[in-house]
Design a protein that fits this description.
70% helix
């Protein structure tokens, strides 16, 4: 097995390492989606405050 744990000595892919990498990638995408959603929600709230403050 290579030091990174992704291939066996015969060159085949290690299924466990592949599944772990896919799980990490999926978790990262979910986290990024949550951060993007929260940032847009906060930005919308700030714009709402500016719009309401400008109505005087």
């Amino acid at each position: 097995m290579s030091p990174d744990g992704t291939t066996n000595s015969d060159g085949t892919t290690n299924k466990r390492a592949t599944l772990e990498e896919k799980a990490r990638r999926r978790a990262m995408l979910i986290r990024a989606g949550i951060y993007i959603f929260a940032t847009h929600l906060f930005a919308g709230f700030v714009l709402l405050l500016f719009a309401l403050g400008d109505r005087k």
